[in-house]
Design goal:
Layout lengths: L2 H17 L16 H16 L3 H16 L1 H8 L9 H23 L12 E11 L3 E4 L9 E8 L6 E5 L11 H9 L2 E8 L17 H10 L6 H19 L6 E6 L6 H8 L4 E6 L14 H4 L1 H7 L8 H21 L1
Parallel strand pairs: 4-5, 4-6, 6-7
Antiparallel strand pairs: 1-2, 1-3, 3-5
Helix pairs in contact: 1-2, 1-3, 1-5, 2-3, 3-5, 6-12, 8-9
Length: 343
């Protein structure tokens, strides 16, 4: 299981025990287990800050909040060292409902758990690079704590260090780079260096907004796309172009390999625009949405890495990693054909 799955299960088990305590607690005892819903709510908030706002994190946070609210009086009694004679009927009913909801959520988190790509141990090296800065001043590597991250770059290399080309990947606004981890691992196994970036800064020159924050950015974009809200075409194209230019400046200063741009759903041809203006630095570009049997275009291989969103999109959870590997195979075939044609 991934760290996020384990953290969510920890919260839910605390909520379940805290709400079902009237079944196991003895009379004439202090209600010390009433503190568990508050502890679960605190951990749920930490999960949102660490793993961003996802569907399951949001549901668990709401459940933990209401469980805490209904147990305020119980905690106050415990802090006042009041001895419990019996639990109120209303508290038993509410705690029973919360315990049942916690048990249902536990089953859901286990069923919709994503594939843990770290357990596959592929023959590739992986590192995470954090940068701070702006588009105007450039980005610099973060070397000290307590500095706000503006760009997060996932870097994958073949362990044999025999890179055929460099792949630069910028995800769509509806996905994060981590959702494509299996895809990056497949490309690295195929002999390519991979740099994938998430930008949490103003990319279109509009000034930094609260919707650019790491916690909310992807969640808001997914909601807008699923609800069919209209978007600014020119802004979307400018944003993707600017992010690719920034990633080029960060990662390709010392690279001499052929460079290929890849994203997932580029209807406005932003990658082609960057390639034309790159003066030969970029050798080609590939859109994952070109792959016909890819059912969740623009959201990533969610059946592998975000099964709950996959269920919303109509695909079943799959922890074999097939779709991630399939996307990698298709992309590698395209790049290899381009390299062969250029020789």
């Amino acid at each position: 299981m991934t760290h996020q799955t384990l953290s969510n299960l920890l919260v839910l088990f605390m909520l379940f025990i805290g709400n079902a305590r009237f079944l196991i607690a003895r009379h004439t005892k202090k209600d010390s287990l009433s503190i568990l819903p508050f502890t679960g709510f605190f951990v749920a908030v930490i999960n949102v800050l660490v793993f961003a706002l996802t569907i399951e994190n949001c549901v668990i946070l709401i459940l933990a909040f209401f469980s805490s609210v209904w147990n305020v009086r119980a905690v106050l009694r415990m802090l006042s060292e009041v001895i419990i004679d019996q639990y109120e009927i209303k508290l038993k009913l509410i705690c029973s409902i919360n315990a049942i909801l916690s048990a249902v959520c536990i089953a859901g988190v286990i069923y919709f758990r994503p594939m843990d790509f770290s357990r596959t141990k592929p023959p590739v090296s992986q590192e995470t690079l954090l940068y701070s800065g702006t588009l105007q001043t450039g980005f610099s590597r973060i070397s000290r704590p307590f500095v706000l991250t503006d760009v997060k770059v996932l870097h994958f290399e073949p362990q044999e260090n025999t890179s055929h080309a460099t792949v630069l990947f910028v995800p769509p606004s509806t996905a994060s780079a981590e959702l494509y981890t299996g895809f990056f691992q497949k490309l690295a196994r195929s002999g390519f260096s991979v740099y994938a970036a998430d930008f949490y800064t103003d990319s279109a020159g509009l000034g930094k907004r609260w919707t650019d924050s790491r916690i909310l950015k992807t969640c808001i974009a997914v909601k807008r796309k699923l609800s069919g809200m209209e978007t600014d075409v020119q802004q979307e194209k400018l944003t993707l172009e600017t992010e690719f230019w920034s990633l080029l400046s960060i990662c390709i200063s010392s690279k001499k390999d052929a460079v290929f741009l890849v994203t997932d759903d580029d209807p406005h041809n932003a990658m082609e625009s960057v390639m034309r203006k790159s003066m030969g630095t970029v050798s080609g570009c590939f859109d994952l949405s070109y792959i016909n049997d890819y059912p969740t275009k623009g959201f990533g291989p969610v059946e592998n890495s975000y099964p709950l969103l996959g269920a919303v999109l109509g695909v079943q959870p799959d922890r074999s990693g097939y779709m991630s590997s399939h996307l990698g195979t298709g992309t590698a075939s395209f790049i290899n054909s381009q390299l062969a044609g250029s020789r």
